[in-house]
Amino acid sequence: MKTQEAKRKSVKFADGEVTTTEFLAEGHNFCTGCGESLGIRMALKALGENVIAVNATGCAEVCTTPLPYTSWRIPWIHTLFENVGAVVSGVEVGLKILVSKGRIEDRGIKCVAMGGDGATSDIGLQALSGAFERGHDFLYICWDNEAYMNTGIQRSSATPYGAATTTAPAGKQSIGQITRKKNMPAIAAAHDIPYVATASPSYRMDLMKKIKKGAETEGPAYVHVLVPCPTGWRHGGEVTIELGKLAVQTGIFPLYEIENGRYKLNADPPELKPVKEYLKMQGRYRHLSDADIEKIQAMVNADYARLKEKVAASSASS
Ligand SMILES: Cc1ncc(C[n+]2csc(CCOP(=O)(O)OP(=O)(O)O)c2C)c(N)n1
Ligand code: SF4
Ligand SMILES: [Mg+2]
Q1: Which pTM does this prediction carry?
Q2: Ligand 1 atom closest to the CA of 57, numbered from 1
Q3: How far apart are CA 221 and CA 139, in angstroms?
Q4: What class does CATH assign to 22-316?
Q5: Residues with beta carbon < 5 A to ion ligand 3?
């Protein structure tokens, strides 16, 4: 733990300055070109050191904490999938009680919970929903690499239609994943929490601003980050940033915020690029026919139009 180093600089965004302090230590075991490691590094810079993190099992844990080492230069708790929402609730309430009893000074410590798409949209959803509903003051970050990656690329409910995984293999009988990606930001927003956002490490200042805003929000906040995964998506590590940009530029993963129920698009290209440009760079989509790609294009067009309707309705009522 290099706490003295961590104290050196604060995080400032107004003038574009970002701390040079690294809260994710070098020497972790993330794969080369991993989008999740980039996202975590950026998020920790935005959060600073006055934070307690609660982390469900997944790549973010497996790649950072081989006993007895840790890459986290902040207080960090590893939980099961099922209870990350419950543990962060306990930490948040525990801190409040310690402050109210005068046992610790009120330093405004922020509670942050995080997990992969499997932890968030499948196995930990119930506890997370409870934490949102009870109104705990915490930020939840979903690192969405669109499958259960660290255990061998098994499909999750966040795996997109048409992607091949080890448990949804593509072949003569199947296109791969046959279900649509669960809309986790919409599920978070349905809890009427004050702040929901999507983000990408390819848009780093946008990501860091959203993490900071989420952490400063009073009450629950949710940031859903799409993180390209070279191992599971079957692409070279050198195109991670480009893929993250293409996800946004094709409309597959729009960047938006929902603040107190009001939708705002943070990037709205005048014309979306064809989804084919994004799909063709990844081995998990290698098997798709032109007809399959057209079907995916139609789904993306419809989803994007629906999102823009919500944005338009929000600005019409302002
Ligand atoms: C209840 C339960 N089921 C299965 C596992 C095994 N397991 C550990 S990590 C993991 C995959 C995690 O997927 P995700 O949350 O998407 O994180 P990623 O590894 O993709 O970053 C699985 C299946 C477990 N630890 N607990
Ligand atoms: S499997 Fe994917 S998300 Fe996990 S460390 Fe490797 S590249 Fe990153
Ligand atoms: Mg995952």
Answers
A1: 0.95
A2: 9
A3: 5
A4: alpha beta
A5: 116-117, 145, 149
